[in-house]
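Supplementary notes for students who missed Thursday's class. We covered one full example, reproduced here. Read the sequence, then the structure, then the short commentary at the end.
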Amino acid sequence: MPSPNAGQNQSNDLLGITAVSPTDIWAFGSYFANSDGSQKTLLLHWDGTTWSTAPSPNPTKGDLLSDLLFAGVEASPGNVWIVGSEAEFVQGDPFTGTLALQSTAAPGNGPN
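Structure (token representation):
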């Protein structure tokens, strides 16, 4: 099934999937942005018919950005967690951190 590609150079990597229901599936990973070569998060949603790109965080602001999403789970109905990492160099010093998306909305609404 075709899915949307983010970024201009179309270098997209999906690293995982979380299925809430047959009409609420989340796929996640990263893509390389053509404008600055950084790796940014990629979040896709399946509504039972088509895949669409969903908003996802890219908090790093330094050089050599590397943000990605790599694991997800529906802990309970309406409680979806997707996690990943961020990495960057700020004035030559490395920085790494964690990313987490969570939704406690009504079941089927996915991560925020």
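Commentary. The chain has one domain: 12-103. Residues 12-103 form one domain. If anything here is unclear, bring it to office hours.
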